[in-house]
Each structure stands twice: as C-alpha cells, then as structure tokens.
Amino acid sequence: MCGIAGIYGTNPNKLTKLNKMLSKLNHRGPDEDGLYNCDEYCSGIKRLSINDLSGGSQPLFNHNRSIAVVYNGEIYNYHKLRKSLEKKNYVFRTNSDGEVIAHLYDDVGEKVFDYLDGMFAISIWDNHRKILLLARDTAGEKPLYYMKKNGQFIFSSEIKSIQSAFSENLSINNQSIWDMPTFLWVPDPNTIYKEIMALPKGNYLKFNGDNSVIKSINCNFVRNDIDDEITKNPVKITREIVEEAIVSRLLSDVPIGCFLSGGLDSTIVSTVASKRVEKLSTFNIAFENIIDPYHGMADESEEAERTAKKINSKHHKIFVNEDIFYESLQEFSYYGDQPFAVSSGMGIYFISKEAKKNGIKVLLSGDGADECFGGYSWYPFISKICRNNHLPIKNDQIYSLQNSTENKQYLIEKIKNLSTAEKAYSLHYYAHELEKGRIFSKDLQSQAKQSSLRHFESISETAPKNFIDHDRNFYFPNEMLCKMDRMTMANSVEGRAPFASANVLQLSKKISLKNMINNDKLKWVLREAFKDLLPKEVYARKKHGFNIPIDHWIRGKWYDLVLHTFSTESHLYKKNLIHDGSLDYVKNMINDEKRLNGHTLFSYIMLNLWLENNGTYS
To answer: 289, 298 in Cβ contact below 8 A?
Structure first.
C-alpha cells in the first residue's frame, strides 16, 4: 500500500516538484520512500509495508529494468500469476505481490491489467517505448488523479499532492461546487479543479508524450460459472464467492482487524476472518444514543460487543461525541482531499486511528454488501415508483425518501410521476436543484450549467434493478469506497472491502431483484448464504447504517458552523458562491419538520471549510 506520484515531461525541476508532491502523501506510506528518474519521466512512492516487509521496496522492475512500476494496493491473485510466469522462466527478485505487474507486462503487454484481481492504482513506465500506463481497479477502491499541463503529464494518489506543486495552474471547477451538496462529494471523473481529472474506475490510461487514450479493463479472472450457478443455486454461489473474497483479502504480513458494527455485513466479514486469523481485532464506534426520526437509534456498540464475544475477537470500542467530531472537522476536511461531507467517514477516521495505536495496519469492512445484494431501506420502494406509461409531471416540489419524515405512501404516489432522474435523486440523495437555486448565487448558477440530475440519465426504468445497478456503479465508489480509502489512509491503515471484489460485483449483476429483496427482507440471498454462521439476532436484524446524528447536532453546538458558513465572513460568500438571503432560507431548512436537512447543510459547511483552508480559489 502506497501513495504514488509521477511526472512525464522534460521539466528541469521535475524532481523537486515530485518530492513536493510526495511530501503530501506521507500519511499513505510512512514506512519507506522510493524514486525512479530518467530524462523524460520520474515517479515515486510513499510505502506502507503490508506484504514482503523487507523485500517489497518500490519501484519494481522487469528483468532488464526497462519497465518500472510504482503502485498502490494489493494484488490478491499474485501467487497464481507468479507461478504461471515462473513456468515461462521469468525470475523474481522479491516476494512482493507487485513484482508480477512488471513481468506480466513483459508477457502480455497492455492486457496486464485484465489479469489483476485486486485493488490498485498502478503506474507502468515503458522506457523503451516511452509510454506511460496508469490503471485503476474495477471497483474504484484506490484513487488516481492526473493533469496535463504545459507539456507535462502529472499524476498522484491525491489531489492535494498535485495542488501542492502546481497550484499556479489550477482553477476551481464551479460545476463541482454545484454538484457537491447533492451527493456530499464530487462525482468522478470531475474533481474540484478544472484541470485535474480522476481516472475512471476499471480503466487504464495510455500516454505517449503527446496524446492520451483511456481504455476499459476486462477482468479475465472472473469465475465463468456465475451465470449457470445463479440460476441453479443462488445461495450456494453467493456463499462461495463472498467467502473467497473475504479469505483472499486476509493476505498480509502484518496484523489484521475488522470494522464491526454488529450488523449483517460486518458480522459476515468478521466471522469468516476470525476462523482464519488468530485472535482477530475488531473495532466499533460508540456515541450518545440519540433517536433520529429517520434513522432510528444511532449507537450500535452493544450489538457489536455481542458479536465480538461470539467470534472471540479482541474487541475495541471507541467512544466519541459531538465535541470530538466537532474538533476533528479540520482534519476530516484535509484528508477528504476535496470537498467531502459523508459524516460517517468520521467514524472510519477514529476507528483507523485506534487501529493504528493497537498495531493494526489492515482493516476489513462490510462496505458494498448493500449495493451488491440489495440492502438499503429504500430498495423495496423501487418497484412501486417505476413509470406507469405516462409522461412525468414537471417537478416544482422536493420529494425525497432519504430525508423526509412525511408518510412514505404519500411520497411514493408523488415520486412515481417524476422523471427517472428525479426518481433516482428522491431515493437517497440530498440537496435538490431547487434548494441549491435558493442558496447558491446567480453568478455560480450561470457558470454551473449542468443539473446534477445528469448523473442519473443513464438509468432505464424497464427493470427496477437498474436503480440498484446504478448505486453500485456510482454511489458505491464515489461515497463508500472513497470514505474508506481516505479515512483509513489518513492514519496509515489499509482499508479493504471484500464486497468490492470483481467476482462479487459480477455476481451482483446477475442476481435477480427477487433474490435480493424477498418478501421485503433485504439482502435475502446474502442472509441465507451465511445463515449457519450468523447469530439469530443478526440474521433477523433490519438494515441499520452507521448514522451520525447530524440533524441533532446541527441544531445544537454545531449551529455556529451553520451561522458562519452562511455569513458574510465565509469563503462561500466572499467568493460570491452564495447570495445575501441564503441564511434566512437555511434557518427555515433547519426548522422544517417535514425534512431532515442536516446532511445537506453539513455539505455546505464542509465545502466552505475546504475553501477556507485551500487558499487557491480564483
């Protein structure tokens, strides 16, 4: 696990620039540095040692050192790939999983990424052909950003790394400012800067010094029996593939732990792991158990402790409260890398901090099970809102299942007359276009010309499951995997998500909606697949996400953050992003009994905090 960065271009200061970029990645890899430099290209890493602790230094090379690899992540099938390459007389110098990348490129060229089962952001420099290849894993677990500017091609694991060395070349993307409060994050491939792009998940980029092209990765290691088995025995194939994914992600030469909420997903991961890891460490967040009118009780620590006792793990309960979270917002903003307001990420931040204190460098999570197996509370409503062969009405009202306290049946009747994009928004997103229009300035609105609803235009209502597929391809990488990566790496801990396995993702494409949601029982096939391992109370337990009581806090001590964010002293106001009357509208949002607007307002708080600390807005 590493932070990586590189520059392609004949810049006499490129090594100085590269070292500045790498200095911003220390948290991703405090254990070791590595550099590669030639006339046209230089790259480097900040390494977090997980596998082959003594011999896995990077860069990694092929037999004649014409291929140089720096990468961030883990290749879980490297043993199999290594054996195959050794049969072809390739000689390995290390036991690192990453060395297979260099030799495999020699063997199969650009198809190298098709063979890699893992999470990764990879850079391959071909010194003979003067070609740079960048690749990002299928699920989007590991980030990779790039910029082409003034004859140079720059890439890094984090945006702040590029910004630190090339701030004079950057300008804020106002479309990203507009989008962020709807999602709580900036959707890939855009970033907060116009000039920096995210490499899309499951793709690789080829740059030859003049031109670049992006191509899809085709995973040729995915099991070919999924189609048949999902029809014959969906429970059996689900058990096999999920268990294989968990076991493969136990690959480590350092101690491993698990996030444990006490719910279905983390219990499955922790239970399977506990049978193969001696005295597994598990971690859970506890805080004041406030009743949220939408999400229910906030704290889950008692459920987690009961599960920990059953699997005999070494359990750690980390207590936090609104004061601790409040004081950590600056750090949360910094490690979010760009404006990011997924409040549950603060829980991951504190868990990974505690894990590091206890010598744990790898944490497995249950993230992705909901998107892959149909676990969210809004999924049973999807079939009820699909279009009834009539034109959608123009929407001049805000309807949302995510943050509304109104009667669900009333909302469904309204939502099913909306456009497909509006329906997708109404299921579980935050600031509506109408709301943003009442908060953001007319100047920003004139520059952000696209509606955030454009991200849902690819959804077809011909099959209700398409909404779940969209969540898996859009919501999962941009929110769940992003917060996992950023907040674990903030503390030099590697987060792994077994449900992001390429085989699990392929399985989820094939599972029928009925096997996902059976008689309103969410994640039916996953529950049945692991029924024999699960405590009865976990098997029967309803979905309960990790919910920070943001609506409660924002009406209390955090209210000063609201006042500052929408005041004339905020960066949002000084940069003409919000208008004079926005605070009055926001106060009405806080007092609205029909909607819970805490997360929407928190997005503006974090957006303003990022702008205040960034210092490069123009």
So the answer is: yes
Question: Residue 250 has which token pair?
Answer: 């136990």
Q: 435 and 315, same structural domain?
A: no
Q: Which DSSP string do the residues of 399-410 spell out, in sequence order? A: --SSSB-S-HHH
Same-domain check for residues 291 and 308: yes
Domain count along the chain: 3
- What single DSSP character describes residue 167? G
> Can you tell me the distance from the alpha carbon of 28 to that of 45, in angstroms, rounded to the nearest whole number?
9
pLDDT surpasses 90 at 618: no
Residue where a domain terminates, one of 513, 540, 567: 540
What element of type H or E holds 174? helix 174-183
Report whether 277 contacts 255 (CB < 8 A). no
36: domain range?
A: 2-216
Respond yes or no on whether the N-terminal peptide bond of residue 189 is cis (omega within 30° of 0): yes
256-259 and 281-286 beta bridge pairing: parallel
What single-letter DSSP state applies at residue 500? Answer: G
Which residues face 285 on adjacent strands? Answer: 318
Q: Beta-carbon neighbour count of residue 303 at 10 Å?
A: 20
Query: Residues 434, 440: contact at Cβ < 8 Å?
Result: no
Answer yes or no: do 369 and 399 share one domain.
no
**Two structure tokens written together for 342:** 């997924």
Q: Is residue 382 part of a domain?
A: no
Alpha helices in 366-407 (DSSP H): 369-373, 382-385
Q: CA 578, CA 573: separation in Å to the nearest integer?
A: 5
In-domain check, residue 306 = yes
Indicate the range of 201-205, 520-524, 593-597 predicted with least confidence: 593-597
Domain boundary pick from 216, 250, 268? 216
What's phi and psi for 453, nearest 5 deg?
-70, -10
276 and 370 in a single domain? The answer is yes
Q: What is the CATH number of the domain that holds 113?
A: 3.60.20.10
**Each residue of 302-324: pLDDT tens digit?**
788 889 999 999 999 998 888 89
Taking the model in full, what pTM does it have? 0.95
Looking at the fold, whether 493 and 556 belong to one and the same domain comes out as no
Q: Which residues, 6 or more positions from 139, have their beta carbon under 8 angstroms from its beta carbon?
A: 119, 201, 202, 368, 476, 477, 481, 497, 500, 501, 502, 505
- Same domain for 472 and 456: no
Task: Choose among 67, 6, 11, 62: nearest CA to 34.
Answer: 6
